[in-house]
Specification:
This protein is an all-alpha fold. About 95% of the residues lie in helices and about 0% in strands. The longest helix has about 50 residues.
Length: about 50
């Protein structure tokens, strides 16, 4: 009985850690993608209007 309980504890801990890692990775990816979009828009404006 004790080994099943510890298995559930480890599974719950792995799920929580996985959720935290996914949240951090997706927030970082969202920042990188938004930064690339802003840089692309600024480059388009520069080459369209100031060239």
């Amino acid at each position: 009985m004790d080994s099943n309980f510890s298995l559930y504890i480890y599974a719950l801990l792995a799920i929580v850690v996985g959720i935290i890692i996914v949240k951090k990775v997706t927030s970082c990816l969202f920042r990188i993608i938004s930064l690339l979009v802003i840089v692309g828009a600024l480059a388009y404006i520069y080459f369209t209007y100031f060239r």
